[in-house]
């Protein structure tokens, strides 16, 4: 049973660490673009509001349509121009500045809390639901 606990705890730690690092890398990349470039003006074609996943929109920038752009503001209105978006030239994608930093912080907090798994006694640790 001790082997199962060890494998589970190490797997959870590795997964949360990997997620936190990827969120942080994404945040740094977007933050660099926000600091070095100016916002672009896009035309909002359609807005997709969702309850459990992020809101997305379809936009047109320089005559090209970009779909499923995640946005975090309620100020976006369909069929209007908006300049809260940024363009990544190397990857050819558009993004709206959002809360990637919060995602990274939450994940690192969960990573720290996952060390509490080691305090569960081996007798009580089971993977049975």
TrEMBL record:
Keywords: Membrane, Transmembrane, Transmembrane helix. The chain crosses the membrane at residues 102-120. It comes from the Bacteria. This is DUF3592 domain-containing protein. It comes from Bergeyella porcorum.
């Amino acid at each position: 049973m001790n082997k199962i606990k060890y494998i589970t705890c190490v797997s959870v730690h590795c997964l949360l660490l990997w997620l936190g690092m990827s969120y942080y890398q994404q945040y740094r990349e977007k933050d660099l673009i926000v600091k070095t470039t100016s916002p672009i003006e896009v035309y909002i074609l359609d807005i997709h509001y969702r309850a459990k996943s992020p809101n997305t929109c379809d936009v047109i920038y320089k005559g090209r349509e970009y779909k499923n752009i995640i946005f975090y503001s309620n100020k976006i209105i369909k069929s209007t121009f908006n300049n809260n978006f940024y363009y990544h030239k190397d990857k050819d994608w558009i993004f709206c500045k959002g809360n990637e930093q919060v995602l990274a912080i939450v994940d690192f907090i969960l990573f720290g809390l996952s060390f509490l798994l080691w305090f569960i006694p081996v007798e009580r640790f089971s993977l049975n639901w």
